[in-house]
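User: What would this chain look like folded?
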Amino acid sequence: MQTLLQKVHVDPQHSFACRTYRTPEFETSWHTHEEFELICIVEGTGTAMIGDYVGAYAPGDTFFIAGNLPHWFRKADAKQVGAAKVLQCKPEILLEAFDGFPEWKGMQQFLQKKDAIALEGKLLQSIPINLDKVTVAQGFQRMLLLLQTILDLATSKQYRVLSRDFNATNERTNPSIEKIIAYSFKHFLEPISLSEIAAVAEMSVPGFCRFFKKNIKKTYFNFLQELRIGHACKLLNDTEKPILEICYDSGYNSWAHFSKQFKQIKGMAPSAYRKQFI
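Assistant: Here's the prediction, encoded as structure tokens.
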């Protein structure tokens, strides 16, 4: 995938960045940076693409993303406002500073992982509060709050792994994958055949399948399925539409097919998913 290598700005008096990004600063395409990132969605909904993960995001969702792991939070509607609290820090700053300290081992192992996680439970409640404190803290208090945040993440099991050990291939000069992604986001609620999407990429169907799997680490139909289920999750959360209507509004023409794929991706039935937000 043509990945934007992002340069994270850090104020001279600080060793890491922590700020709120709001439209238009919120908008960034598929990108990566060497810093690990802790991001809490404040405003807006859409689709999160992190490594080989694709899923819906909404206010309150909080993610930890390892350094050099490509990601993109794409708004559901280009006209809506997006905002997030974001902490970004080079892991080497902490790994080198505490190298040799036995007490640091657990946090060291956490920072050395190449994973992306979605926070849950009490961790989902406490970490955004820590981000607020870091934003206004001064001096070494800011660093202490960062260490406490990493400790909380490293010692908790209240999270869900979204992407594990993802290794992006070097396709920076090939724009085909961006054409595929853009077309898919525009048409994912409509039927899309392999021959149709292969034509968008100007490839044969077998060549397209190999190319997509190499870059996105999943088949195109699995990717499309995740986009549609992510859209369904947004409708279940944000509207009172009947679930059968949401099935058809999410690109499916079979309730059985929709229900089966929803359970495969979310681990529960659509009705159970909706009850979480009531």
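Residues 176-275 form a domain with the Arc Repressor Mutant, subunit A fold (CATH 1.10.10.60). If you want, I can go into more detail on any region.
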